Amino acid sequence: MDIILQTILTLYLGLAGFAAIIAFLINLGKRVGWVKDGMAEKWSQWLNFVGLVVVGVLYFVAPTAIPYVDSILGALANLGGVLFPVLALIFGWPIAVGVSSFTHNKTRGFPIFGFSHSK
């Protein structure tokens, strides 16, 4: 039994895709506010534990699938790292324009903030 656990742990530690998706998920969680300051280490520990359990299950159910799952997770992490800034740019611009327009309309007529040369 010890040899099997050691094999699963060694296999898990060599999987870059799992590590990449965990790092991506933690950073995404920080960005949206799910992962608070100072809690990234706890999230990393729990996600690594879940990943180890998943690899352990795959080791017994479908051992040949582990490299494919790892490569898919790595690709998703890379895609997420590229896609997230693009989505932020696409959705950020209309939101910024909307907020600016809303602010302009609500402050119209106030001294200093709502000054306009147009009638």
Description of the molecule:
- With 119 residues, the protein is mainly alpha-helical.
- It is built from four helices and no strands.
- The radius of gyration is 23 Å and the shape is elongated.
Poorly predicted segments: none
Computed Rg: 23 Å
Percent in helix = over 70%
Q: In percent, how much strand structure appears in the residues? A: under 5%
Shape: elongated
Query: The biggest beta sheet, please?
Result: none
Intertermini distance? 82 Å
Tally of DSSP helical segments: 4
SS-based class:
mainly alpha
Mean pLDDT: 74
How are the secondary structure elements laid out?
Layout: H1 2-13, H2 16-32, H3 40-61, H4 66-107
Helix pairs in contact: 1-3, 2-3, 2-4
Quick recap of the structure?
With 119 residues, this protein is mostly helical. It is built from four helices and no strands.
What keywords describe this structure?
single chain; 119 residues; mainly alpha; elongated
